[in-house]
Amino acid sequence: MLIHHLRVLPLLVRMHVRSQLEYRGAFWLDRLAQILSYGSVLATIGILLSRFDTLGGWRWPELALLFSFQLLAYSLGAAMSFTQLRDLEELVRLGTYDTLLVKPFSPWAYLIFSGLNIGYTGHILLAVPLMGWAVLSVDVAWTVPSALFFIAAIISATLLTAAIITMIGATALIWVRSNHLFSIFFGFWELTRYPLNIFPGGIQLVLITAVPLALTSSVPVGALLGKPIPILGDWAGAVALVAGPLWVLIAMAYWRYANSRYQGAGG
């Protein structure tokens, strides 16, 4: 069964990618719009720094690294989860999810790989060059351990992003409605493109625990740059690396629980 799944998954991805590229002009115009949209956010940060020099003790190259890290980790994690899990509410409401349960295939794997979203290409095209410039501009003595930490932190942040989105989407299997939770998610996510230490203690605690999105941005980047990290202190780097795999396990358990509570379209 596992071998069968592994053979089918590339086919699902290829079919969905081809459908997204059917109108290539519109696809690339949409990517350009994404780049301009996030570019305007980056420009706003730049304007703030031109007035105040630093933001929470972070200089421009450090904030550029933070912004690009957050955007890259989100785009990689969301490509594997957001659109697919956002649409789960509609599948549950219409009863379409029932058809996935009778397929000889994991419902989660089918949802994720049949809906792999290459629309995040615009995010990546902005984040990667900016990250390359920032990496060369920040005051970090790059070594093999620091480079490995940086790569591992991006992977962990990606996993954490996908795990949280998966749990939000899976809530539709219990409540039918879950998309309102994405509004809360993005409200907190927008905060994480700024240093954690500029927020009040209560928000800092929420961004590390209940909605741990700071672990996808300012915590790992701050640990790399040697910045003081509120609450976590010297444990910041280790917590950032462990967070992704840990929350994946939590998301897997929650997905199974949500499926066990699912009662079908009839309620």
Automatic annotation (TrEMBL):
Protein keywords: Membrane, Transmembrane, Transmembrane helix
InterPro entries, A to Z: ABC-2_transporter-like
Keyword Repeat: no
TM segment ranges: 32-52, 64-83, 108-136, 148-176, 196-215, 235-255
PANTHER family recorded: INTEGRAL MEMBRANE TRANSPORT PROTEIN (PTHR36833:SF1), SLR0610 PROTEIN-RELATED (PTHR36833)
Stated name of the protein: ABC transporter permease
